[in-house]
Design goal:
Layout lengths: L1 H8 L10 E17 L5 E19 L4 E15 L6 E15 L4 E16 L2 E18 L4 E15 L10 E15 L1
Antiparallel strand pairs: 1-2, 1-8, 2-3, 3-4, 4-5, 5-6, 6-7, 7-8
Length: about 180
């Protein structure tokens, strides 16, 4: 009975089914750290839960190696509560992915660029660009739908605004767990 239910929902998918474009929705939960440079203080940033969207393209090689690119946006935001609340607002990521297709499971790693708004007391002071890396797994339910589980980390070094406080004032690190569902075409 369980085998019949599995076959109706998912079943086995060939490696070639990972080929092509996809778009998906995600739910993200995360937190971060803001390390003030030259100071003994580091602040925890509570990120909460956010929604996101992602789109990309996969190309499967003969060896079942999957190469791809992906663009994602998350409404994630986080704030600390020291004397002045520091934080970030929204996150845009562009990254390359490398995975290995094993029937309907594809573990992967990703590396790319992230962009966010750095804020103090809920006022945006600067656009920040950093690096992002991730490890995750996509599960192909059928030839059109997949599920995702991912750990992602984005690092922004030397964030700050020279007109308010010196540049290179802090390093921001944001860690996120993501679940998602995508439609493949």
């Amino acid at each position: 009975m369980a085998a019949a239910a599995f076959a109706a929902v998912g079943g086995m998918v060939s490696a070639q089914d990972w080929n092509g474009g996809y778009v998906g929705l995600s739910a993200n939960s995360g937190d971060g750290n803001l390390d003030l440079l030259g100071s003994p203080f580091a602040y925890k940033i509570d990120g909460g839960t956010a929604l996101g969207i992602y789109a990309g393209y996969n190309h499967v090689l003969a060896s079942n190696l999957v190469l791809g690119g992906e663009l994602s946006y998350s409404s994630a935001e986080g704030n600390s509560m020291p004397v002045t609340p520091w934080g970030y607002d929204g996150m845009l990521q562009a990254r390359a992915r490398v995975g290995y297709a094993m029937d309907n499971i594809m573990p992967y790693v990703a590396l790319g660029m992230a962009k966010t708004d750095f804020n103090v007391a809920s006022t945006i002071f600067s656009d920040e660009t950093g690096i992002t890396f991730a490890v995750g797994m996509d599960y192909m339910m059928n030839d059109k739908m997949s599920l995702r589980f991912e750990y992602n980390e984005a690092r922004f070094n030397s964030v700050g605004e020279p007109t308010i406080f010196p540049p290179d004032v802090a390093d921001l690190k944001v860690k996120t767990l993501t679940i998602g569902a995508a439609f493949h075409f």
